[in-house]
TrEMBL record:
This is Phosphatidylserine decarboxylase proenzyme. Catalyzes the formation of phosphatidylethanolamine (PtdEtn) from phosphatidylserine (PtdSer). Binds 1 pyruvoyl group covalently per subunit. Coiled coil: none annotated. It is a peripheral membrane protein. It comes from Vibrio parahaemolyticus. It catalyses: a 1,2-diacyl-sn-glycero-3-phospho-L-serine + H(+) = a 1,2-diacyl-sn-glycero-3-phosphoethanolamine + CO2.
Length: 285
């Protein structure tokens, strides 16, 4: 059955299905929208007590519900300049060293940092022998993504690609999953070196948005796009630890890359562990 589920993803019209779901999720359908949201909350056991607006009737579209804001103080950010915090509510899929330019996708499946970063060899060199972590956001999770540390945006890269599901089953069976799916790569300069925060698209992920640029995708295309940002001035993007940096309209995956000898992951972190945005993720070395 698992092989059938994965195999079907090669045959379905991934982009067409995603466009359709994106339109439906953006539709204002009144009581029908409310009914769908109530079903989703029950189906995935979504905790609405922590949402700023807990009544499903508040949301005009499903997307508004999906990127719901939390109550003030619902995710306190762990203080301390040396502490890097989790960027999202998620589940740790894989983490560890980047060895020979390779990241672990799942048992028996690796992929390259260069491919993940849109084929940019020079950029990938900045993370040679560094560290990575992959965080999977499930449908029930809070879907805004935040900064794990203070950072100044240097570059944003849109990389077109497939839209396979990114759930654990697919990660274990589709080679180069995260390097073949559509993604938005954000490169930040921090006090401990470069950091990449990559937002990976997936089937029925209708949109990836950034707080400084709005919607990055859709529209979708076949060309890699790059935007460079200044270190200072009106067009500079400087974010503090815990600030929102992006969001998914329907869930997906966040991947972080860190430079060599820059950080040490929290000693309690392990694969399969749920994460809460703002809690300890790593320590600066």
């Amino acid at each position: 059955m698992d092989k059938i589920k994965v195999g079907l993803q090669y045959w379905i019209p991934q982009h067409g299905l995603t466009r359709l779901m994106g339109k439906l999720a953006s539709a204002k359908a009144g009581s029908l929208t409310t009914a769908v949201i109530r079903w989703f909350i029950k189906q995935y056991n979504v905790n609405m007590d922590e949402a700023k607006h807990s009544d499903p009737k508040h949301f005009k579209t499903f997307n508004e519900f999906f990127v719901r804001e939390l109550k003030e103080g619902a995710r306190p950010i762990t203080e301390g300049d040396e502490i890097i915090t989790h960027p999202a509510d998620a589940c740790v899929s894989q983490f560890g060293p980047i060895e020979d330019g390779q990241l672990i996708q799942a048992k028996g499946h690796n992929y390259s940092a260069q491919e993940l970063l849109g084929g940019d060899e020079k950029l990938a060199e900045e993370f040679k022998d560094g560290s990575f972590a992959t965080l999977y956001l499930s449908p029930r999770d809070y879907h805004r993504v935040h900064m794990p540390c203070d950072g100044t945006l240097r570059q944003m890269i849109y990389v077109p690609g497939d839209l396979f599901s990114v759930n654990p089953l697919t990660a274990e069976n589709v080679p180069n999953l995260f390097a073949r799916n559509e993604r938005v790569v954000c490169i930040f300069d921090t006090e401990f070196g470069p950091m990449a925060q990559v937002l990976v698209g997936a089937t029925i992920v209708g949109s990836i948005e950034q707080v400084w640029a709005g919607t990055i995708t859709p529209p979708r295309g076949n060309t890699v796009y790059k935007w460079d940002y200044p270190e200072e001035g009106d067009k500079a993007v400087i974010l503090k630890k815990g600030e929102e940096m992006g969001r998914f309209k329907l869930g997906s995956t966040v991947i972080n890359l860190f430079a060599k000898d820059a950080i040490e992951f929290d000693a309690s972190m392990e694969n399969g562990q749920p994460t809460v945005m703002g809690t300890p993720y790593a320590l600066k070395k």
